[in-house]
Amino acid sequence: MASEITYAEVKFKDTLLPVEAKAPPEKSTPQREPCKPKLWVPWLVSALLLLLCVALIITLIGMLHKQSPKAYKLPATFPEWRCALGTPGSKEGVWTCCPMGWKPFRANCYYLSSDSMSWDESEKNCTGMGSHLVVINTQAEQDFLLSWTKDIFSSRRSYFIGLSAQEVEAQWRWVDQTPYNETTKFWIPGEPSSPKKEKCTSFQVHSGTQARQNWNDVPCSISLNRICEAAAAFI
């Protein structure tokens, strides 16, 4: 018996054939313009550099001020002055003036005291007159002071000068911050002998001797005469 073939009609409803997938269109990246430097940046850098330069200049001025000699000027309150025409190296027509009782030498005026006191009191006394304890910078100045003091006093005398040893360093310093010059010093041979105990300096005058070396270290508390110094007035 022949088998029967059954046919079934099959219908696919709403069936779509596969479609080839398409990639989404690439988005175009906008080109960036090159960065331009901001106009205020160079001004800021310049301002910072200027401030740095100003700070350095102020620091240097401060350092130089500390190291440079202090300025002392005689007040105009002295009742009498003595003036001489010209000083070594000065221009013509310039008068160099010192108060009465003060001795002129080059561009400075010098005062010898007749009373005695400690080193600290001596410096205060000189400062009160617009001067300071003498600072001896040259051999000519040393010779001038030695000759002057010998002419005035025939006996032995000692004067405080503006040289003292520091507390910690035991180094010698002048009162006006002038650097202590090892090549311009006039210590008595063997002196200074004890700068840790005898921190101040005396200028010793001996009649009948011409010894230029006459500095001696002494205790600051003893009472001695003093030599004051200040810049002369010019008119």
UniProtKB/TrEMBL annotation:
It comes from the Eukaryota. Keywords: Lectin, Membrane, Transmembrane, Transmembrane helix. Residues 105-229 form the C-type lectin domain. Pfam families: Lectin_C. Gene3D superfamilies: Mannose-Binding Protein A, subunit A (3.10.100.10). InterPro entries: C-type_lectin-like, C-type_lectin-like/link_sf, C-type_lectin/snaclec_domain, CD209-like_CTLD, CTDL_fold. The chain crosses the membrane at residues 40-64. GO terms for molecular function: carbohydrate binding. The keyword Kinase does not apply. This is C-type lectin domain family 4 member D.
